[in-house]
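During the no-cost extension, the postdoctoral fellow (Dr. R.K.) reprocessed legacy sequence entries with the updated structure-token encoder. One reprocessed record is reproduced below for audit purposes.
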Amino acid sequence: MNRPSYRELNKKIKKARETVLTNRVSVVNPSSIAALPTKTDKEQESNKMGKKVMNCPNGHGKMMIKKMAKSANFRGVDIAFHAEYHVCPVCGTQAGTVGQTAAIQKAISDAYRKAVNLLTGKEIREGRKGLSLSQEALARRMNVGIASIKRWEGGLIQSRSMDQALRMALQGRTVGDQYTGNRTFSIPRIKLVLRRFESILGKRILKKRDKMLFAAKYLWYADMVAFRETGKSMTGSTYASLPYGPQLNNYRDLIDEIKNADESRAEPLTPEEIRIITRIALTFPQEQMAYDAAHREIIWKQKATGSIIPYSDSAGLTAV
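Re-encoded structure tokens follow.
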């Protein structure tokens, strides 16, 4: 075999170098590639663990992650909880990532719920899984939207009446009949009923940035009277006794969904339901009249704040 001359060997080496530079090829030992601790690998591993590297804003370098005991006064209740922070080992400065901040908020929520005897997000989730229920199945059992289940498990604090309904559902009972008026809860139908009221009253009662202070009173009367006279509510809504009168239970979670709902997807109103809505609208042509009448109803006055007003009480209505 003829060996290449020195000149030919130099040409091949030069050509190989040009190829490496042109194509940005790095020549390494193949067996060592998998073991290289690249920055990308570290970042990916860090992201998998939900932890991000943070540097001290005071210039002391990398901060350490610590789980710390904290206390706070939340909604007038003293609570204690544990939370994860980035802490500077030099100056003690504490900081948190977006993920840590969300976890802290959830820890505060669960500590508060524990203190006031409401189910925590973990208890709801474990109770649901113990019954082999999906979030959607639990929502159906409670006659609420699946968004409510997701929010409660995620950290949103439920009302006391909704907590009662949760406990019933997690005991294997369906929350229906007296709470929903023998009808499946329907947000599009709530909007349909309110739009019918608006067409009769000749004005908007479902308004922007409105907390349904007045609209809920019309809706409550419509559902309660329909149940009293037909044995079935119009919307399947659950109502709670609140300081400003009867109100949709968990209304804060529902307001945006109601405003954004497509009423054309709702089951059409029956002639009897339209007659009931018309009668209520003519009885209360002004919003304040519906509001004041609801506050005079004994079935609201008798209930403790936060408790559910069952449809079985509809026989006690006096204004309509």
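Residues 2 and 291 are 106 Å apart (CA to CA). The beta strands are 64-74, 77-87, 94-95, 239-242, 245-248. The remaining legacy entries will be reprocessed before the final report is submitted.
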